[in-house]
Design goal:
The chain is of the alpha+beta class. The chain is 26% helix and 33% strand. Helix 3 (100-116) crosses helix 5 (140-158) and helix 5 crosses helix 7. It starts with 11 loop residues before the first strand and ends with a strand. It binds zinc ion.
């Protein structure tokens, strides 16, 4: 198994959710909190290429297969990409009008960067790479608002309290002009190559010796990670939280220095190349301590 080209992903998706929820189309909107008809929100939006057939596996499938992809069983096919039925039509329209167009422009820029990178070479090198580039005429605020909307849509499926436990995230998405997030939230962006796509609702993990509460969506060209509480500033990941301070209308050339991440395991923030995964495996080393316990959306560990 490997990355097949400069920009191609395998169809395996790690998604920790209750699949039966997909059948539901009435409920409480995870953004505005109103009850009613819910509509399918693609996460990420279709402009990221999220409109294709994928097969979904869970972390448990991977463990049951002895941590070997090729041995995984129980893949659940999903014909039209990844989505969540947790947002009402009005909120879907609002983000579609105010956030998605700017988000998609930055996605395009990210895809262009990915296409220029020697992905196979990076995957054969144990060293983590970072790339510096400029996104021309970026509108930072709508971009980060769409990221938070995606995080809400995903977490709302597994945790009905996520919106009430995180009112500041909700308020940030509800009003296009709202700026800034409380200190307990940090938003990280990396370039992401796949091959797996990863969808991780809020969880706790010990990563490089520090316990983090995080939620993440990894879908090329980017990996989006939100930490709640302890930040991930001990890891080589780009903190873009300051972009939440921009005004809605702000448009400027934004210079980003981002880690280049692979998805060879289901763990969020595990960006190791194939070469590094192999080396670590032979040395019996794990950079990610697995005891991933349940956490509620306030970041409290549920023992
Ligand atoms: Zn709504």
């Amino acid at each position: 198994m490997g990355v097949r080209g400069a920009y191609s992903v395998e169809k395996t998706v790690f998604r920790e959710t209750r699949y039966e929820a997909m059948a539901r189309n009435k409920g409480i909107c995870v953004i505005c909190g109103k009850g009613g008809k819910l509509s399918l929100e693609h996460v990420p939006p279709q402009c990221a290429g999220n409109d294709k057939y994928v097969e979904i596996n869970t972390f448990a499938d991977w463990q049951a297969a002895g941590e070997k992809w090729e041995a995984m069983k129980g893949a659940r096919p999903q014909a039209e990409g990844i989505g969540y039925i947790t947002i009402c039509e009005a909120c879907n329209r609002y983000s579609g009008a105010h956030y998605v167009p700017s988000f998609c422009k930055t996605i395009d820029a990210g895809i262009q960067i990915l296409r220029q990178l020697p992905v196979l070479e990076f995957d054969g090198d144990p060293e983590l790479k970072a790339v510096e580039f400029e996104v021309k005429a970026m509108r930072p605020l709508p971009f980060v608002k769409e990221v938070i909307a995606m995080i809400l849509a995903m977490n709302g499926e597994v945790d009905a309290n996520f919106r009430t436990d995180n009112p500041d995230l909700v308020g940030f998405v509800l009003d296009k002009d709202a700026r800034g997030l409380p200190n307990k939230y940090h938003l990280y962006l990396s370039l992401f190559f796949g091959p797996a796509l990863r969808f991780a609702p809020t969880m706790a993990a010990v990563i490089e010796g520090r316990r983090l509460v995080l939620t993440a969506i990894d879908y090329p060209p980017f990996s989006y990670v939100v930490t709640i509480g302890t930040p991930a500033d001990h890891l080589p990941v780009g903190d873009i939280t300051s972009l939440t301070q921009c005004a809605y209308e702000d448009q400027r050339d934004v210079r980003l220095a981002l880690t280049c991440g692979f998805g060879h395991t289901p763990f969020p923030l595990d960006y190791r190349s194939s070469a590094r995964v192999d080396l670590d495996e032979r040395a019996g080393r794990r950079s990610i301590a697995v005891p991933v316990k349940g956490v509620n959306s306030s970041g409290v560990i549920v023992e």
